[in-house]
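Lab notes, practical 5.
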Amino acid sequence: MLDLTTHWAGFLSIIIFVVAYVLVTLEEKTHLRKSKPVMLAAGLIWLLIGIAYSSAGMSTEAHAQATEIIEEYGELFLFLLVAITYVNTLEERRAFEVLRARLVQAGLSYRQLFVLTGVLSFFLSSVLDNMTTALVMGAVVIALGSHSPRFIAIGCVSVVVAANAGGAFCPFGDITTLMVWQQGKLEFFEFFKLFVPSAINWIVPAAFMYFAVPQARPEPMTERVRAKPGMTGVAVLFALTIVTAVAFKNFLDLPPALGMMLGLGYLQVWSYFLQRKGSRLSDEDMVLDSFSQVQRVEWDTLLFFFGIIFAVGGLGVLGYLSLLSDVLYTGLGPTSANIIIGALSAIIDNIPLMFAVLTMDPSMSDGQWLLITLTAGTGGSLLSIGSAAGVALMGLARKGYTFSSHLKWSWAVALGYAAAIVAHLVLNAHLF
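Output from the prediction step:
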């Protein structure tokens, strides 16, 4: 590859990327969807790369680099398309409404609910994405804390931390872990070595927050929600889809995205039988249109991933990521570099950070790849704006959960972040 770090195309690409990312951070104020500036930036950066490589008579090399990134994004896109479709279908079958209603009816105290919502967020996010988990469990916290703003503020912080921590120990729990697994840096079951460190990441701040939660008991509610027919079948097929994706990767050495697409076939067939039965019984609740659930996929998010992956990949082709790798991983060492990158994810989205690390491809042990997975997945909990879970929950809870209410507990979250790292370094020392 050409070293274009001091070339006019390189300088202009950096300016384009920075401007695009600033627009992403200002999405709430400008109402410009985050995918739009990064898609524009990605296209412009690759236009500059094409001009520079063509001028040097190396168009073939630029084409090869672009094709490689297209392949990486294509696998991620198909994987997420299926996973999000299943989550949308579970939502349409009222699975999350049923869960919320049952928790509301449980008649537990605020402190018991604080622990329960945290634990459920931790485990749910290992299968669902952290944003969906935060929205589901955040809705529970808000419903139960209607007469206790203090419970809402503290409970939402706990839900965000738990959702981010739970996504770090499972390949399906977060985009960053999925990227590391699909790149073949770690085997599927290696991620579960992060279970204890991830749990500590939530338990430490939760232990401090627990005593600030009111001891009272919320008023009992009698909300009743009935799941739509076929909900259990969808949940079972989702689990079977995950097993299929793992089997494709581990036993057949095929991309897990192919296993996920097979799982989408499971859902299509199941929806066909439900549709036939619903038409026969004239039961509208039974009818399931799986294609409409595919249409409900959050395209802004998927296109944002496209823009980020191609923009960051373009900076790698220009030579900037190699330069950054020399400064961080060669200069400071992988442990310090991974901890710093994790802390940066409280300000910069962890997806471009993780893709940058994967593009740098530093020579690291399995223990170090687990460390960057842990830190990139949980570092965003330090601030409410550091993760999709926190941003989504601020929008849902509005004045109940804010940047400042989260900041009050950032010191406790930071202690959990440090404790999780120490736990990993001790428990998984043999992997370094």
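Observations recorded by the TA: The mean pLDDT is 88. The chain is about 70% helix and 0% strand.
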